[in-house]
Amino acid sequence: MAQLHRVVVLAIDGVYPFELGIPSRVFGATDGLYEVLTCTVDGRPVRTNSDFSITVEHGPDVLRTADTVVIPPFTSTSVTREVSEAVTKALVSAAPGSRLVSICTGAFVLAAAGLLDGRPATTHWVVADLFRSWFPQVALDPDALFIDDGDILTSAGAASGLDVCLHLIRKDHGSEVANQVARMCIAPPWRDGGQAQYIQHPAPTTTASGTAAARQWALENLHEPMALADLAEHSHMSLRTFARRFTEEVGMSPGRWLIQQRVDRARHLLETTDLPVDEIAGQVGFAGGTSLREHLHAAIGVSPLAYRRTFRGALSPTH
Questions:
Q1: Are residues 274 and 130 located together in one domain of the fold?
Q2: Any idea where the HTH araC/xylS-type domain is (predicted)?
Q3: pLDDT of 190-247, one tens digit each?
Q4: pLDDT at residue number 203
Q5: Are 70 and 157 contained in the same domain?
Q6: What is the DSSP code (8-state) at residue 231?
Q7: What is the C-alpha R_g of the chain?
Q8: Distance CA 281, CA 223 (A)
Q9: pLDDT tens across 10-43, in order?
């Protein structure tokens, strides 16, 4: 009889209970293909981000027997640029050749330990800027739901923990097993797109000068065709000065910003109305449904229909 693949989950102080339980729930639904154990860095109880602590059966010694180590996320207030000596020692003790998997802020632990240097990785989009500023040596992709880099896998927040665990089952045992587990967990076996479809883009704070007036005018007239010259005129600047000032204030070119605003407005209408795709395209300034589909897919990796199905549920016959 083949030896069970041992998954060891390392619970760190401030751990999120939901994500802590994902590996056990998902790998445990494979009818005996995996064994899931939970440990802490010292074998003692750890507090969660909720109003209770958890007691585990194992200390760090069990990491030496792991085939896969999972680091679930912990509250962002516990995120640090450096990991404690106890955490470092625990990670180093993992069996040679074992896979390392992080969920959400768990990537900070791997990065702080130097295990992600020069490698692709992802984490929750909310903390992506902080991660990038602390660990510029990591090739961060904040749009991905998860990244498989062989012996190290990183994933985004919460439900992406399900995604990466199902991916590992599919990788280890094929789609049939992974699909059956997904059915047992009542979860999609595969999600299209990435984190981009869940990211909100708050508009930069307007100011009394600069390009704020042009941005406000553009937002009020997204349904109309507009050129860079129109925006510059509303700021009483030359084209060259306006483009430079706009990029300084917003962090992207006027053209890219305008497309982002139109896509964001389209996303809002897809979420909150039953308007046909062609009508939404007209309301946000795209030439037609085809143009909207192309821009939406380029921005978030899914079609308008798939996006609406995800965020609105049942569709009306008009779509």
A1: no
A2: 212-310
A3: 777 667 667 665 555 544 458 988 998 999 999 999 999 999 998 889 999 999 999 9
A4: 54
A5: yes
A6: H
A7: 23
A8: 8
A9: 999 999 999 999 999 999 999 999 999 999 999 9
Within a domain: residue 207?
A: no
What is the SS3 assignment for 61? helix
151: number of Cβ within 10 Å: 13
Containing domain of residue 301, as a range? 212-312
Residue 294 has a pLDDT of 94
Token representation of residue 45: 């109880």
Q: What are the beta bridge partners of residue 9? A: 38, 70
Mean pLDDT of the chain: 89
Domain count, the chain: 2
Show Cβ contacts of residue 262 under 8 Å, excluding neighbours closer than 6 positions. Answer: 222, 284, 285, 286, 295
CATH number at residue 236: 1.10.10.60
C-alpha neighbours within 13 Å on the C-beta side of residue 68? 23
Residue 23 sits in the same domain as residue 155: yes
Both structure tokens of 235? 């700021």
In a domain, 206, yes or no: no
Do 175 and 305 fall within a single domain? no
Together in a domain, 235 and 272: yes
Cα separations in angstroms, 124 against 75, 103, 225: 12, 9, 35
Q: Which helix (H) or strand (E) holds 17?
A: helix 17-27
What distance in Å separates the CA atoms of residue 17 and residue 19, rounded to the nearest whole number? 6
Please check whether residues 37 and 144 belong to one and the same domain: yes
Return the number of other C-beta atoms located less than 10 Å from residue 84's C-beta: 14
